[in-house]
Amino acid sequence: MGEKYYIVDLSNKEFKGDILDITYEGSTVIIKNLEDVLEKDFLCVKTLPLDLGKFDTVLFFLSINKYKKRLIKDILKRLKSNLKNGATLMIWDLNYRRIKPFDNVRIKIVKKDNKVETLNEIFKFNPFSLSCGDVENILTKEGYNVTKIDDDNLMFYIEAKYTEDENEGSVSKS
User: Fold this and answer.
1) Rounded to whole angstroms, what are the CA distances from 153 to 20, 96, 124?
2) pLDDT tens-digit profile of 129-162?
3) Is the pTM of this model over 0.85?
4) d(CA 54, CA 48)
5) Residue 96: which residues within 8 A CB-CB, separation 6 or more?
6) How many CB atoms are located within 10 Å of the residue 21 CB?
7) Of residues 50, 65, 80, 42, the one with CA closest to residue 135
8) Tell me: the pLDDT tens digits for 79-118?
9) Which domains does the chain have, with CATH numbers?
10) Which InterPro entries does the entry link to (predicted)?
11) Number of Cβ atoms within 10 Å of the Cβ of 94
C-alpha cells in the first residue's frame, strides 16, 4: 500500500518525420517534453478526422487504456487513412490490472535534456484495462505489423509499423 514511482526514459527515443500525438483529454506529455528540443511540428488530437493529413509517427502515451476497447479498434482502423506507408506507431501504457489495490503509481519522465519530470496524474488499479498482449492482438487484427515489445508486466511499450503492402516481419520481444 502506498505510492510507487515508475520511470519512462525518453532521452534516447527517436521521433521521425511528421508526428501525430493521439491524446486523451489533451494530455500531451511527450510533445511538451520534446518540442523545445526537437525542431518538429507536432499535431495533437482528441478526435480523429479522416482528412488530418499523412503522418510518419503516431504516439500513444498512457492513452490506450483510457479508451474503451471498441473505440481503440475504431481509432486504429480510421488511423490508417492518415498514415504514410511505413509509418510507426509508438505506444506506452500501463497494465492497470497489475497495480495492487490501494497502491498509487506515479510516472517520471526522463526528457531529451536528461531532466526528470513527474507527471501530475496518479494511476490506480483498474481490472478492465488492456494488457500488452491485448493491445498487440488488436494491432495485429487491424493490419499493423508489431515490430517491438517491451513489457515488464506493469508498463509496456509497443512499436508497430503500417505498410499498405502485405505485412511482413517478426516481433522482437524484450
Assistant:
1) 27, 10, 15
2) 888 999 999 999 999 999 999 998 788 999 999 9
3) no
4) 12
5) 65, 123, 124, 125, 126, 127, 128, 129
6) 24
7) 65
8) 888 899 999 999 998 888 777 877 888 888 888 788 888 8
9) 15-97+126-173 (3.40.50.150)
10) SAM-dependent_MTases_sf
11) 22
Helix (H, G, I), strand (E, B) or coil at 132: helix
**Distance (Å, rounded) from C-alpha 87 to C-alpha 14?**
13
Quick one: cell of 99? 497495480
Lookup result for grid cell 505506444: 91
**Three cell numbers, residue 31:** 510533445
Range list of β-strands (E), the chain: 2-9, 19-22, 42-45, 55-61, 83-94, 103-110, 116-123, 145-151, 155-162, 172-173
- The three cell numbers of residue 41 are 511540428
Match 528540443 to its residue by C-alpha cell.
Answer: 37
